[in-house]
Amino acid sequence: MFKATSRTAPPPAPYAETSRPGSSRRRSSDGGHRNLKYPYRLNFYTSPPALDITLEEFETFAIARLKVLSAIHSLQERSLPPAQFRELISTQIKTHLPLSSNTARNVDVDEERRGDEIGHWILRLAFCRSPDLRDKFIRTELELFKQRFDSDDQHERSQFLKSLNFDWTVVDDTEKRVYEKQLKACMPWSAQRDGQFASESWVKVPWYTVPDLVGPRKVFVKGGNAYVPQSYQISLVLQAFRSNLERALELTAKSLPRMDEDDRLMPILAHLAQSFLSNVSIESNFFGDADDDPNSTRITADMIDALAVKHFPACQYNLWNRLKRDHHLKHFARLQFGLFLKALGLPLEEALVYWRRGFSQLTDDKFQKEYKYNIRHSYGQEGKRMNYPAKRFGCQQILTSNQPGAQDSHGCPYRHFAPETLQTFLSQHYSISTGSPEMREVMDQVKKQHYHLACTRVFEITHPKDVKKGEGLGEGVSVSHPNEYFNKSWGYEKGISKPKTEPMSDDMHLD
Amino acid sequence: MPVPVKTDSSMQVEDDAKSPEVMLAFYRRLFPYKPFYLWLNQEQAPTRLFTHREFAFTLGESTYVRYNSFNNAEEFKKEILRANPTRFEIGPVYNARPRDRKTMQASALRPEKRELVFDIDMTDYDEIRTCCSGGNICVRCWGYIAAAVKVLNHSLREHFGFQHLLWVYSGRRGIHCWISDKAALDLTDDQRKAITNFLEVVKGGKEQLKKVHVRGSNDNGDLHPALTDALNDVKDVFVKTVLQDQDCFREERGWDTLLALIPDKDVVDSLRKRWQNSDSSSKTKWKELLIAREKLSDQHLRYTKIVKAIEDIILQYTYPRIDAEVSKRRNHLLKSPFVIHPGTGRVCVPVEPSQVDDFDPAGVPTVGQLLRELDQTHAESLEDDVKMDDEETKDDKSSRRSEPDYNRTSLRPYVELFEKHIAAVMRDAREAKRAANSHSMDF
Q1: Is residue B405 within 8 Å of B29, Cβ to Cβ?
Q2: What is the pTM of this model?
């Protein structure tokens, strides 16, 4: 994303010599020395972008944003300490949706902002359809905006606020004096109150526009108005952002059916919405099917049993276990497990060996006839010779497609097992004892239908040396693919520190 | 179920609010349909405020029928007389008629508006009342409710700017508040949560002694101005109700709790020694505590700490203990005014907040009493009719008859209070409508 483009290479800064390096304050107004299409880093998204974009851009911008929103959503569910929460979010934002301030050099600020804007508007289209989606979208967008607002350059921020033209009533000096005592009692830093009182200014708004300040009694309330000091302005801005978005989404939802749409966009939108709802961060190339070469590590059939016990996520462990016990797996289970093994780096020959051993009660003949084809097929050696990318079988697919029937063993244990069965399973195979606080946390997430978070928590619990609570698969990322789980887990055992395993999972999911 | 035979001769059969006949008579002759309709609807012609409103009926002991809705007051009355519920509750105004919900997609029925409601229940005061417990209530413990009404009434009006507050006795041991301002109707759940949190000062369960934490993380900040206000309001109540009437700190259980709330160890130790074997009154004990406080006045830190703790104690014993869950969400159902409390037979009548001190829950008419009053006046009027038959024209008689029955009973003053409240609500609604109309005419 950090593209140094030639189109709007920043002109030599006029203050280059006088300004200290690293100082972000700049005295230009409105970023005036630079002719920007988007003068502000922050955006209230009040009017849609009127421009032509390519389908590819449509997808990339949307997905980049969706990744961040999904990450925010799963972090919000995990009740982390605020500092850690902020840090994890900001890493996510930096990776996928960087937005630089006007002072940034070597960055095409306009391009970043254009991407940000387009991404937002596309997701609006995708997420306006149901109250659930809208609600989730608003909550995560709000958090994203807040993070950016907090990290914005003070000067640019106040310029931005000015541009929004809020009609807040400023409390005049007379009124300020009348309520001096009350206002002081509600100032956040009691120690410096007297000194700051003179310089602080308040605005008066109906109390219900700032519920987050009224609830914890942070502001003075009188005659239906809340007196909000400058330092709490973020609440007002967020509230405005929120109501703006709420209204807009409902309008969009109403007009969506009338949108004259060919079938290029709707499938993308539907796909985006579905992955957001299933709480799984999206896999990036919905269109593309870049063949990934699953050969970074040589794995043999003999190694699988040992690896399974230590590193398999619940869904795959269950399949491995079933195969051992029943010497057979049904179609979708074979597909789920087979592609997982393939992505582990198990080559075709080894896969044939493994499956042959697994299906030990079959005659050679039957295996050759009925199953070998199947396995070869999944490696792209038969039929239309399609090399099924293993990434297609991520959590989202496991959770939502091909619901397991009575005899099936595929699917996601967190979702498809009865709670009691799941508990027994976890205590037997992952040594999380029933009744322990950890088990309760896991089951809580299951109850809330955050299956991937339950899985992430199990990962954290079973890797106490390597991961802290809340870190997930590193930097707060939650499990969205069984192979990610495996790669991280195995990576830790091999003593590979984070950076080395990253490319592998990056390669698979993060583009 | 066999009806137990009452041996108490003063208790007549019709007194029993559980008897369907009694309830039916009440609904047929006494329930004030017209004012009730206007109160919810806020104008004469039916609006969404009435037609899209949920009513939940309790039939018999435990059958609960939700999502009833009605096009107008007549339809409502007809259904009440048909179903004859033991009680009914009022829910939110939805985005569609609640009774049509089966024709809609699941979850498409969403609450949109609702009066802002508060519920104060005497059971939350059990640990600090010495006269009764559980479902019982007497004039003495009503003092707590009276204090709560005054504080809440003040805060809702002065701080939050609401005007149309209707206080309703719940029929046994609590009181409800219904706010009909337009701003209140429109509040979202988040906003309701905010105001509820703002007003929820006394928090925490049985296991928690100190229940007031309103000064930030270390309990050492300044009081919010609204609470300073409240503190001034309740100081009298504290002396009158907590110290004198309830005498909360006479028994060991009482003063032990009090000492646990004092953060100064020296003070606690000396007071404990003093109180251990004495049977002094709460007032004396409180005085001794204040003297101990003043002795610390030259030690700034210890002094401010104990001053703040004492303010917190006063709040803990007198600040309204609201049932927060009732207020937080639009879709919470709350018992309607003027229904009969099935346990006591008393009518849920409006209460004038300025006279809440003099309100006697035991003086509220029961359904049986009202029906007897009706029968009596009916008998009298029959006699009158016979006597005056010759002189009186037919018109006079019918005009007298058209007057609602409740005006001939002790329910009358309560309905009048209700009507006065409604008149103000409707006046405001009319003005808002006119303002909106004239505004749209500007174009």
Answers
A1: yes
A2: 0.67
- The answer to whether B50 touches B38, Cβ cutoff 8 Å, is no
CA–CA dist B366, B388 (Å, integer) = 32
Q: Is A208 within 8 Å of chain B by CB?
A: yes
* Euclidean distance between CA atoms B4 and A20, whole angstroms: 92
Q: Is B293 left (phi over 0), alpha (psi -120 to 50) or beta?
A: alpha
Residues B126 and B152 in one domain: yes
Tokens standing for A370?
């009925």
For the domain that residue B48 is a member of, what is the CATH number? Answer: 3.90.920.10
Taken in order A281, A284, A287, A288, the sign of the CA dihedral is: negative
How many domains does chain B contain in total?
A: 2
- Amino acid found at B229: D
User: CA–CA separation, B135 vs B119, rounded Å?
Assistant: 15
Distance between first and last Cα of chain B: 67
Contact B226 A221 (CB under 8 A): yes
Chain A residues whose CB is inside 8 A of the B160 CB are 207, 221, 224
Q: How far is A166 from chain B (nearest CA, A)?
A: 21
Task: Let me know whether B189 and B218 are in one domain.
Answer: no
Whole-number Å distance between alpha carbons of A259 and B384: 75
Q: What is the pLDDT of residues A468-502, one digit of tens each?
A: 777 777 777 788 888 888 888 888 877 654 443 33
What number is the ipTM of this complex?
Answer: 0.86
Classify residue A408 by burial, with Cβ atoms within 10 Å: 0-12, 13-18, 19+: middle
Kind and range of the H or E run holding B256: helix B252-260
Q: Compute the distance between CA of residue A56 and CA of residue B124 in angstroms, rounded to an integer.
A: 62
Q: A34: pLDDT confidence band, cut at 50, 70 and 90?
A: low
CB-CB contact of A109 with A4 (8 Å): no
* Residue A492 host element (H or E): helix A482-493
User: SS3 of B172, please?
Assistant: coil
> Is-contact B378 B405, C-beta < 8 A?
no
* Fold classified for A29-163+242-277: Transcription Elongation Factor S-II; Chain A (1.20.930)
**Is B187 buried (19+), middle (13-18) or exposed (0-12) by CB count in 10 A?**
buried
User: What is A92-103 written as a DSSP string?
Assistant: HHHHH-----TT
Q: How far apart are CA A241 and CA A250, in angstroms?
A: 14
Task: Tell me which residue in B195, B197, B225 faces A186 most closely, judged by beta carbons.
Answer: B225
Dump pLDDT digits (tens) for A376-410: 887 877 766 666 666 667 888 888 877 777 777 88
* CA separation for the pair A437, B68 (Å, rounded): 44
Scanning every residue of chain A, which has its alpha carbon at the shortest distance from the alpha carbon of B110? A131
Binding-site residues on chain B for chain A (CB distance < 8 A): 107, 110, 158-162, 183, 187-188, 190-191, 193-195, 197-198, 214, 221-228
Report the amino acid identity of residue B227. L
Q: Is the dihedral of CA B334, B339, B344, B349 positive or negative?
A: positive
Residue type, A80: L
Just list the catalytic residues of B: 54, 119, 121
Please indicate, yes or no, whether residues B134 and B21 belong to a single structural domain of this protein: yes
Q: Other C-beta atoms within 10 Å of A331: how many?
A: 11
Phi-psi region of A476 (alpha: psi -120 to 50; beta: other; left: phi over 0): left
